[in-house]
Prior knowledge:
Elements: E1 2-3, H1 6-20, E2 29-33, H2 41-47, E3 53-57, H3 59-69, E4 73-77, H4 80-97, E5 108-111, H5 121-128, E6 133-136, H6 139-151, E7 159-161, E8 179-183, H7 192-208, E9 213-217, H8 234-238, E10 247-250, H9 254-258, E11 263-266, H10 271-277, E12 282-285, E13 305-306, H11 308-312, H12 321-325, H13 340-351, H14 371-376, H15 399-427
Parallel strand pairs: 1-2, 1-4, 2-3, 4-5, 5-6, 6-7, 8-9, 8-11, 9-10, 11-12, 12-13
Helix pairs in contact: 3-4, 4-5
Amino acid sequence: MLADSDTRWKWGALTASRLTGGDPDTRLDGRLLRGRATPTVRQLEEVGVRADSLREVTAIEFLREIEREAPDVIVLALVGGAVQAVLHGLARIAEDSAGSGPFGKRPVVVTGYVGVVYEKLADGLLLRHGADVVLANSRQDAERFRAVYEGVGADAASVTEAALPFLGGAAYERHDPYTVVFAAQPSVPESREQRTYLLRRMVEHARLHPDREVLIKLRSKPGEHTTHIEELPYQKLAKGEALPPNCRLVYGNMGEVLDRTDLLVTVSSTAALESLHRRIPTAVLTDLGVREALGNHHFIGSGCLTSWDEIDAGHSPEAAPEWVARQGVAPDGTYEKAFDTARERVTELLAQPELPPIAPYYSLTTAPGYLPGILARHHLGPDGAPLPGAPAADREPGPVRQAVRSAARGAYRHGVQRVAPVIRRMGEL
């Protein structure tokens, strides 16, 4: 399994477990794609998923390891461009192998999305085309995915309906004290003004309801990165606020936080689906508008759209059952069967003596002005072969290389979180 961020590690590792049905004889080798969002040890521990082996690699190093080891199944928990690069690399290896060596039968390739797909639907889907199984987290997503593939003339047989692999936990029961949890997102909303507004409303809600506990659930600590860049972390914004005693910032596993939640509030976080799965009252905020840029448009028809004014007045949204049923949330008890079709699909592919060649929609015929740039980001040429100067061997970096890499990441994060906002504000003067 190859992942490029903490949330995708969580999705990929749990998806692998769901596909094997928890078979204790199955080995999970985890690899982290080296990049700006490579998770820290703390982030991995917070996810709570363990692998039999785990190390950081480049795309080239991963492909060389796959060529040597030839696993049965590969789960790609990556951004779309990285999925496409690995698919072309695997296709090249399989072509060069021509049925000989450990790569005689290529692995089954599985990929998908870590949460709500509310932007870049066509772009992200076509970059994932070529995998044997493209998991859809709901009936609605499966229909949308097939429509995109069929609409461009691509094979849609890979689209397989499943669900988010990390849903679970006890059904909702009221707690004492009543606890309101705000699920923060790294990049939604983006502006300082809007993030400060949301923080102020949380603080005001805590003051209006001193008998309630208000928790601001954060994704990462300062200096850490997640799937999306967070320029203005709430920790930083909260330094200028006098938080009342019943309002605090918290970290930790989202499932454990939901164990004590009476009302989940968010702009558009996937945590809303985790909450709805448990039948926890869930509020998707309209304060900043219902807009594609925010992702809350995905919840139109859910019955969850509301505002802080309504929450302050005591409103607790009730989700529309028919909407929830189409989202793969399955609070009716059928969730445990959500991966049956995907598991059967993988089993069927593994039983085949030979698998067809990997054939992504994007090729030098369909996208000659786009594909080479996608592949080059991962040191692959237009034919899927390593470019000159690509990493020469799989090896653990020495102490000097580790120090340089750590310093480079630190400089990048400092630039994103400190320098870029200042430059942006200067540009607005």
